[in-house]
Amino acid sequence: MSPRWTPNPDVRTGRHVVHHLHVHLVFVTKYRRGVLTNDLLARCEEIMREVCTDFEAELSEFNGEDDHVHLLVHYPPKVQLSKLVNSLKGVSARLLRKEFDAHVRRYLWGGHFWSGSYYAGSVGGAPLTVVRQYIEQQKQPA
């Protein structure tokens, strides 16, 4: 006999919450300099996975080019997104500069690695129009 309902592995539960939060993040190198080699990208992914783990989040996807990276992060609602971003950027910048110092200094100066800004977009679930329609239909007149 098969179960009638199979739980979605992406839906997580906490003590008082059920959540399914994903964010697409994009970080750009300072001055859009093409500093990120394949080795730097691989190490950057390792660092960012560790930071996410510290926040009880999961780095679901990671990729990038020479001047930017894309992250898909599954995170719990107790995580303040701006703090996660600051930690991801700060820890990765510090360690990448330390570990790839000679290479990084050819492209970047002044102690910077990432641009001060970033992109964050909510991801997953139904399209906004479907959610809006669902909410509107919750209390229909009898």
UniProtKB/TrEMBL annotation:
Highest rank taxon of the organism: Bacteria
Protein name: IS200/IS605 family transposase
Alphabetical list of SUPFAM superfamilies matching this protein: Transposase IS200-like
InterPro entries referenced in this protein's UniProt entry, alphabetically: Transposase_17 (IPR002686), Transposase_17_sf (IPR036515)
GO MF terms held by the record: DNA binding; transposase activity
Stored PANTHER family: TRANSPOSASE FOR INSERTION SEQUENCE ELEMENT IS200
Residue ranges occupied by any Transposase IS200-like domain in the UniProt entry: 18-138
One BP term from GO: DNA transposition
Gene3D superfamilies tied to this protein: Transposase IS200-like (3.30.70.1290)
